[in-house]
Structure formats: structure tokens, C-alpha cells
Specification:
Helix content: 25-40%
Strand order of the largest sheet: 1-2-3-4-5
Oligomer: single chain
Largest sheet: 5 strands, mixed
Number of strands: 5
Strand content: 25-35%
Radius of gyration: 14 Å
Amino acid sequence: MSDIEIRDDRAAGRLEAVSGAEVVGRIEYFLLEAPGRALVPVHTVVEPAHEGKGIAGSLARELYAVADREGVQVAPLCPYVVKWAARHPAEAPAADAELLSAAHAWPAAHPGRF
């Protein structure tokens, strides 16, 4: 993992793991604005040649770190991030129920985004 850089492409809604010039993994997310601000991860993808190297976990950890720096919650829809958060409660505080409900409704209101 030492050659992996994680960067936030906020405009595209992707947290990317980059090795050299290649994106080897990503978390796709959106920013929920109401009823409060939250980062909402929807999909986590690691390229097959890079699986098993801890990239997905590093992406999840960085997503929560970004949220913490910005003072927002994470309301995960992505099954991987949900499981990662359950295994790392000290790093991944649970989002409140109202934010999770709004996060679940958002994709249906924005078809084609994910």
C-alpha cells in the first residue's frame, strides 16, 4: 500500500486510490445537503489485480477522515463501507437515522447518477 495515494475528486464524487497514473480503486459518493450535510458512499470498487491489498479499507478510512475534517457525518449506502464501519466503530461513528433515511431516498430522486 505504500505506493498508493488517495485523493478526493469531489467534483466527480469519487475518492480514488491511485498507483502511478492508474486509479486502482475508488469509492463513489455524493454529498447530502439536507436534512444535514453528510458524505454518502454508494459503491466501492477495487480493480481485480489490486484486490486483497487493503485498498478498500484504506479508502473507507480516508472517507471517514475527510468527513471528520469537514465536520460532517458519513451515511453509508455501500455494503462494504457499512461492514467496514461496523468493524471500526472508533473511526466510523454511526450516522443519525434521519440522515440515513434521506441518504436512502436520494438515489431514487436522482436516477442515472449511480
